[in-house]
């Protein structure tokens, strides 16, 4: 079950399916079934692994141009993002813009539902987030 909605830079909501484009087949997830979406800017591959109310989300973006995506969550949450490949500009609501360099990480309490991801150039981007819903933190 997807906890978050993702919108492309033309404001269209991405529709994820289990059909993985050939360009993403090399990214393997043994024992898990990722979800993929296609946009005008390229491809998105997400894998969400729930565990006792916490979610680990692996994200891959294979992009053919600079673009941005909007992530919308239904509830406030604590996020631990880890940038694995490349770097991106991450704007979590009113917290301001943060630049996540390759191998960078942070901890963010995201009380607003919207977060922007800005990809400055084409290429492969990957990062992992550990997401704690607000109700699990009390």
Low-confidence stretches: none
| Number of E-type strands | 11
Output the number of helix runs.
0
Indicate the overall shape.
Answer: globular
Query: Roughly how many Å apart are the termini?
Result: 23 Å
Sheet bearing the most strands, described?
Answer: 6 strands, antiparallel
Rg (CA only): 14 Å
Indicate the mean pLDDT. 88
- How would you write the strand order of the largest sheet? 2-3-4-11-6-9
Q: Proportion of β residues?
A: over 45%
What does the model show?
- With 138 residues, this protein is an all-beta fold.
- Helix content is 0%, strand content 53%.
- It has strands spanning 4-7, 35-39, 42-51, 54-63, 67-73, 77-85, 88-92, 98-100, 108-110, 114-119, 123-133.
- The protein has a six-stranded antiparallel beta sheet, with no helix packed on it. It has a five-stranded antiparallel beta sheet with strand order 1-5-10-7-8, with no helix packed on it.
- A hairpin with a 2-residue loop joins strand 3 (42-51) and strand 4.
- The two termini are 23 Å apart.
- The mean pLDDT is 88.
Briefly, what is this?
This protein has strands spanning 4-7, 35-39, 42-51, 54-63, 67-73, 77-85, 88-92, 98-100, 108-110, 114-119, 123-133. With 138 residues, it is mainly beta. The model has no long low-confidence stretch (mean pLDDT 88).
